[in-house]
Amino acid sequence: MRFILRRTAFYAFTAWAAITINFFLPRMMKGDPVSAYLQKNQGRISPEAIDSLRTLFGLDSTKSLLEQYIDYWQLLLSGDLGRSFSKGLAPVTDVIASAIPWTIGLVGLATVLSFALGTAIGGLIGWRRGSRADAIVPVATFFSTVPYFWMGLIAIAVFSTTLGWFPASHAYDKGTQPGFSLEFAGQVIQHGFLPALTLVIGSLGGWILGMRNMMITVLDEDYVTVAQAKGLRPVRVLINYAARNASLPQLSSFAMSLGFIVGGTLVMELVFSYPGAGKLLLDATTAKDYPLMQGLFLVITLAVLVANIIADVAYAILDPRTRQMEA
């Protein structure tokens, strides 16, 4: 209970600090969303409409900064993140909600696959250290050093332009109406294969190398030697004793990766023109759409916090020493 309370207090304070910084950061930047919006619509907005826009964006000059901060919290707790003027004054929550599923579906699936494959392969390589399987490590490490955009361009040149197996861009065919149908699902899988393959190959080396090194370290521990001396089956020693403890550092890295899924992989989404949160963030930055930027930063920050909470709980379940140290 003490472990849970300590962690809850820590993450509650972190969330408050992130939300507070998210409130003050746009107000510390040069200009404001209303001024940027007026520059694009010169002479077409009346003074009364300008005052309404400032109230809409929480920049009412008649209110103090503290009152604006309280209003921001009230809107935030009601699920209102403001209006995006680069998207026709559409609610920021709707704009983000339209992009997040694409990022989670693509980057999330690629992250889980690379973590599962990398951890399993790295564990087996570490278990059989000194065998021919060690040759996989330098190959996977080489691909992990190749930039995402370069690997994506190569994938497009080979599998799309030359072979014509997969589309080169977008999440589905142009003119197609999104919906729950087998035809649309097939288009999504076909369009998402190359970006997902790029992410998996690019991140696989890190998971393999990390798990292999931890396995080699764990295999020299006394509890593994005792388990082997008892005559336990090698598979049981591998899974219950070696891999379980070696995967603990991997779990923390995986939690961080899950948190940044919401932010998407910006370069990959640009190369493949994929309609994810990363590309949306770049568009918002280019258009100086502060409310949309603010909403995206908040969602990404909270996603990282939630992922870390899940990692802490899982870490405490797998390793009781964590709870004892906290106590």
Automatic annotation (TrEMBL):
Compartments (UniProt record): Cell membrane; Membrane
GO BP term, pick one: transmembrane transport
Name listed for the protein in its UniProt record: ABC transporter permease
Organism: Cryobacterium fucosi
Domain ABC transmembrane type-1 residues, every copy: 100-311
Keyword Transmembrane helix: yes
Record-annotated membrane-spanning stretches: 9-25, 99-127, 148-168, 188-209, 254-275, 295-318
Coiled-coil ranges (or none): none
Topological relation to the membrane, as annotated: Multi-pass membrane protein
Organism domain of life: Bacteria
GO cellular component: plasma membrane
Key word Transmembrane helix present: yes
SUPFAM superfamilies attached to this UniProt entry: MetI-like
Keywords carried by this UniProt record: Membrane, Transmembrane, Transmembrane helix, Transport
Family: Belongs to the binding-protein-dependent transport system permease family.
InterPro entries: MetI-like, MetI-like_sf
